[in-house]
Structures
1.
Amino acid sequence: MEAFDFVIVGSGFGGSIPALRLAQAGRKVLVLEQGERLTPQDFPQDWSFRAQARLFTTYTSKDYHVILRYGRGLGGGSLTYAAAMLRAPSAVFEYRDRDDYRVWPAAVTRSVMDPYFAKVEEEMTIERASWSDVPRAGGVFAMMLDKMGKTADRGMYPIHDCMQCGFCMCGCPFGRKKHLGHNYIPDAEQKGAQFRTECKVHHIEKDGDGWLVRYKDVHGIAQVVHGDGLIVAAGALETPAVLLRSKPWLPDLHPQVGKNLNNNGDVAFLFRIPETMPATYPYMGRNNAGVITYAFWEEHRITIHPGAGPPALVAAMDVYSEKDGPKVPLGYDFKHYVRDNYAKHLFPALAIGLTDGEGEVTVNADGIVEFVLPLNDRMKAYIDRVAGVGRQIAEANGAELLRTGGDTFEHGDAHPLGTCRIGDDDSRAPCTPDGELRGQKNLYITDGAAVPGGTGVNPSLTIAANAERIAAHILAKG
Ligand SMILES: Cc1cc2nc3c(=O)[nH]c(=O)nc-3n(C[C@H](O)[C@H](O)[C@H](O)COP(=O)(O)OP(=O)(O)OC[C@H]3O[C@@H](n4cnc5c(N)ncnc54)[C@H](O)[C@@H]3O)c2cc1C
Ligand code: SF4
């Protein structure tokens, strides 16, 4: 049987970053990735379900309230993310939940994370967008805040010489948006790490002090490899699934695996602006529309950033107006509403905020991910608070807030976290502060599953910095 010092499941930020650091330190590393090795030619400017299905895996919650999806392929979500990479504010690391439990470990503060943030920023070549990089929707949003006497900051991105084509979330066919296939992965390969694509891990088993990893290869043939150490970094939905499928071989699996699912407090909405304001053209420009406001952070612990969304996505959203306008997502009236308003007067925005992770990932009898993210009173109160802020911005500008959700989907689909969270409390957190799964020697979680709560901003930089931090710990352990 093939044997490695470390086997890593998943090649997103959580997987590729430790792969590089371990390979640099001379460890023999194998990364197993279920997705394909994609090239720029595999990123067509195409929002069709067919094209998207190749790049994303999408799940609907058991109660049909929420959609969650993740990017699939060598490089994971980095291929198709909108590439806002921002440091989580200090208060994120101090967050206490409804039981007064400090969600991040006491030893992991913003100042402890700062060197790891800096390391990722350097590898990914992250820089602040210039005003000429900010799409129209972002400029309009900044104007709206300015009118209220509030500020918006230009965002941080690993994007250079952007052509503003508006298709970042289909993958950048021009190579202007950095993903892990530009840095961590080739650097790790150069140091000897192997990345095997179209290899889906089913489950793991203990093998002495190490691990057996059972997967199906590109031909659908069952394979097994040994790792003295194992890192599971299959994303916050699939990491717990790999572990839960392994339960027959891990009867002592921590009971919190799969619990504490947090959607990063994502609440999506749209603004319809008056004719007197400049046109928004939300089909143009980078998909994360260049600015973010922290103006409501102190009071509400939320940030808001505008987006540039494709017409199909906007037309499919379950949007409703608190005043006049659309009441249902589909149908003749709504189509006409989108036709008349989309190009010039609409733009989407996303609030991200600190909430308790009260969802759960499980697997069904076939081993497939299922999840719930209950729309309980706490979540409803949070969404109302976010809507209150959105309304404030709209009313100050003669604009209208269009909400999403209603009685069906709450469209906050991109940022699942926390399902194998690190933490100080043995009973609440499956992983130690340094990412080891409690009770399972030499098994680490380094992806969004390990990030214990909301990040206040888009999460990829925090996931990546935390992966750098855990990789440094693994190496320091020897
Ligand atoms: C449309 C969209 C836009 C986004 N935009 C932003 C943004 O602008 N800024 C930001 O910070 N975040 C953004 N995100 C979120 C960001 O992409 C994720 O938070 C991040 O990529 C998660 O990293 P990860 O390492 O936890 O997991 P992933 O990047 O999801 O990596 C997990 C990998 O594991 C693989 N895998 C899963 N199961 C198995 C298995 N059984 N065997 C083998 N391999 C497996 C998957 O195929 C995947 O490649 C966006 C997400 C989406 C969906
Ligand atoms: S908007 Fe810029 S980063 Fe996004 S796909 Fe187009 S060129 Fe690439």
2.
Amino acid sequence: MRTAPTILHLDMDAFFASVEQASKPSLRGKAVVVGGLGPRGVVATCSYEARVFGVHSAMPMGQARRLAPHAAYLVPRFELYRSISEQVMRLLRELSPLVEPLSLDEAFVDLEAGQAARDADSARLAGVKLRADIRTVTGLTGSVGLAASKMLAKIASEEAKPDGLVLIPPGTERAMLEPMTVRTLPGVGPATGDHLRRAGITTVGEIAEAGEDELVRLLGKAHGHALYAMALARDERPVVAERETKSVSVEDTYDVDIHDRVRVGVEVGRLADRCVRRLRASGLSGRTIVLKVRRYDFSTLTRSETLRGPTDDPAVVREAAARLLDSVDTTGGVRLLGVGVSGLADYTQEDLFAQAAGDVSEEPAEEPEAGPVEEQAPSPAERRWPAGHDVRHAELGHGWVQGSGLGRVTVRFETPYSEVGRVRTFPVDDPELAPADPLPLVSPVVRRPGGEPVGPSGGGGSARRVAG
Ligand SMILES: [Mg+2]
């Protein structure tokens, strides 16, 4: 392992929600929840103000609404998030050729490979400058972790959140990890966490104390070895620039082997849904569906199927996983099941629109009473107004959809550079109203030859400009 804290992990703070707050002045400092608004939707990201109420990523949207009924609920605008992500990733690539994106808003950077840093002082400087540059270019905050390994850099950025920087000085890693919960370590989910707890192990220090043999006995060879090494802060994984090999997967180990074929099918469906939630939370989609089955005798099979195009549709992933299960003999019992999606791609624009429109159409944002959810297909006009998306009114200018339903659409007229704007309601087929492209979060200052810098047109109120 290297001796200098020159691996950087960047994680943007509440990324999707922060983008929405930056583009909508009326939502700054407010609880904002971004995700699928349909009956089966989940939270993709929520603002820190919403987290106070207990809302978190991957939570079913219905539960979020009960916890934070007054929050703003918005349909994701992945096209915008992706363009901002590209700005951030460009800044990272200026630091090093070795940038490993984990999602739209998260990446590892090997500062040493880019000669951006060689010791703790230069690494800290690079991190401080990066955070300032991100703020200037995007108007958003990101948290930075610096350490001598990927695992520790990620733990450091988590500690730094929100809007901070944490550097773990080499030599202090083990002392820092010791009191932390086992769940801090990568690969320790609820199942492994429970398993360890039953063996009396709750902290990272207790893993180290238990020793390697005990860990292997508890968790099997591969997982046991890996976890023991991580507990000692040993992590040699390099920062890898390409992402083609990346996949999102989830798996569960069962305390008692499952024999019932129907139950196996139910579990696979559940894992497929969980996998899709993680995929969506990262703003990704993938083409290859993978099923993993470990049988009673520890023989492990994987089966995969490659689709024609990338998907993040839970029904598609569930069906593919069920087809794959059909080809596996589970009569002796199953001790582990997993579902993964690989061949990841960012959302294409077309997918996004279809998905966003589909999500919002299932539940008008201004449902009058807590009656049954309207399952009827909405009119094409209602499909055009997903909550949170931009619109332009012929007379009143740029705004965003605050809600729609019952043949009406409510628009708040404001831009990223304006004061909090006013709200107006229109018939959904008002000819003066049209969907619009998002505006950049930071006012692009246009210099006309020999003239004064001018902000973008279309915004009411005063322009908020960022120097440079
Ligand atoms: Mg983040």
